[in-house]
Design goal:
- The protein is α+β, with helices and mostly antiparallel strands.
- It folds into two domains: 2-168, Beta Barrel (M1 Pyruvate Kinase, Domain 3), CATH 2.40.33; 173-218, no CATH class.
- The chain has six helices and twelve strands.
- The chain has helices at 66-73, 121-127, 132-138, 172-180, 186-196, 203-218; strands at residues 2-8, 12-16, 19-23, 28-30, 34-36, 59-63, 88-91, 103-106, 109-116, 144-150, 152-154, 160-164.
- The strands form three sheets. It has an eight-stranded mixed sheet.
- A hairpin with a 2-residue loop joins strand 2 (12-16) and strand 3.
- Helix 5 (186-196) packs antiparallel against helix 6 (203-218).
- The longest helix is centred in the C-terminal third of the chain and has 16 residues, at 203-218.
């Protein structure tokens, strides 16, 4: 597993219909070593801190392997690395294999997996079409958010070393599937209960699943 591209971007104003919005989804690859802080990478920032950024969303990675899929879905759209707003374009790191709570060493930084990415309309702005939002969620290719446990530096070409595999075994794609599906079965409810016990799953997700469990058990 390794980093193939490091991408950063600062907030910029873009047109959306008849109004102007500020977004940081337009990220570009950078060379050399990049400092990793508890809130973001050097040269990077989030535009709307109410839904983006914070300690639990300090770094976002997206697999290079997914680009082939999306180029087949949207063959006329040019997709350089950073197209999905990711800080790290990676190889060998897949959402169906990565658990919430897994810890990785990248360069001299230490990151822990916290949650999948749920897209907002700004991804639609980036792609120039809003149907990407539903397709993105349903594709089970959400990318991975991390909290920074130890600050450091990283760069393209760095290996991604697994330091700790979370024993709770709730994957990134498990979270997405539980979010999408409303099955009232023991398997789904059990998995949601398991997810709420994950130390590094952010509190809003735990509240969401607790409420969903209560609703399903009433039905």
């Amino acid at each position: 597993m390794k980093v193939v591209s490091v991408n950063v971007g600062l907030p910029k104003q873009v047109s959306y219909g008849k109004r102007q919005v500020v977004t940081s989804i337009f990220k570009e690859p950078v060379e050399g070593r990049v400092k990793v802080t508890t809130l973001n990478l050097a040269g990077d920032a989030q535009a709307d801190l109410s839904v983006h950024g914070g300690f639990d969303k300090a770094v976002y990675s997206y697999p290079e392997e997914h680009y082939k899929y999306w180029k087949e879905v949207y063959p006329t759209i040019v997709m350089p690395f950073g197209m999905f707003g990711e800080n790290l374009t990676t190889q060998g790191l897949y959402e169906d294999k990565v658990n919430i709570g897994d810890q990785y060493q990248i360069g001299s930084s230490r990151l822990v997996v916290t949650q999948p990415r749920m897209p907002c309309y700004k991804l639609g702005i980036k792609f120039g079409r809003m149907d990407i939002l539903e397709k993105f969620v349903n594709s089970r290719r959400p990318g991975i958010y991390y909290k920074v446990l130890e600050e450091g530096e990283l760069g393209a070409g760095d290996n991604i070393k697994l330091l700790y595999k979370d024993k709770n075994n709730v994957t990134i794609n498990d979270i997405v599937s539980l979010y999408i599906n409303d099955r009232n079965d023991e398997g789904s409810i059990s998995k949601m209960k398991k997810a709420t016990k994950s130390k590094f799953l952010p509190e809003p997700w735990k509240i969401y699943f607790d409420q969903k469990i209560a609703q399903l058990q009433k039905s």
